[in-house]
Write a structure and sequence with these properties.
about 170 residues; two-stranded antiparallel ribbon
């Protein structure tokens, strides 16, 4: 169990950097501008994913994101979803609109090489990063576009082996 996004994002960054064949991201909301490490601009998702597929010719990145989040999700990234980061031929970005009216695609799953899977309540979007201390004035808990935000408590599970293959 990974308690809070700080721990999850460290594990996810390590998994992304070791990925060889496939990264799959399913999300309720997704913000390509968010950073897995608040202090490191190179961990901004759109830059990181693009750099990974550039360095690894066999790596494909698949993203499936709830279509309504572009308008109603925390990030509201309609304009950010269609810039050059996803134009790479091995980044496959899809919006999920195959759900009943007013229903939500609510998964928060990431699978890496069918060998490691993360599932839980943490989106790859704005205003999710925090530590278990939930310090009221933690300067790292700041969204680059909206400023400081309140503490967030959530968790993500990491599984490997047969469980990861089943999730994938």
């Amino acid at each position: 169990m990974l308690i809070d996004a700080a721990a999850y994002y460290v594990a996810l960054l390590q998994a992304f950097r070791q990925a060889r064949a496939r990264i799959m991201i399913l999300g309720w909301d997704f913000d390509p501008r968010m950073r897995l490490d608040p202090a490191d601009p190179a961990t901004e998702l759109r830059r990181l994913l693009y750099a990974l597929v550039e360095r690894r010719p066999d790596l494909h990145v698949h993203l499936l994101i709830w279509d309504v989040s572009l308008v109603f999700g925390p990030s509201r990234t309609l304009d950010q979803m269609f810039d050059d980061w996803q134009a790479h031929p091995r980044i496959h970005f899809h919006l999920d609109g195959r759900h009943p009216f007013v229903a939500a695609h609510h998964e928060k799953i990431v699978c890496v090489d069918d060998a490691l899977a993360f599932a839980g309540g943490i989106d790859l979007t704005v205003k999710r990063w925090d530590t278990p201390e939930h310090a009221p004035a933690d300067p790292r808990r700041t969204d680059a576009h909206d400023g400081p935000y309140s503490a967030v408590h959530d968790l993500q599970m990491a599984v490997g082996g047969e469980a990861a293959r089943a999730v994938a």
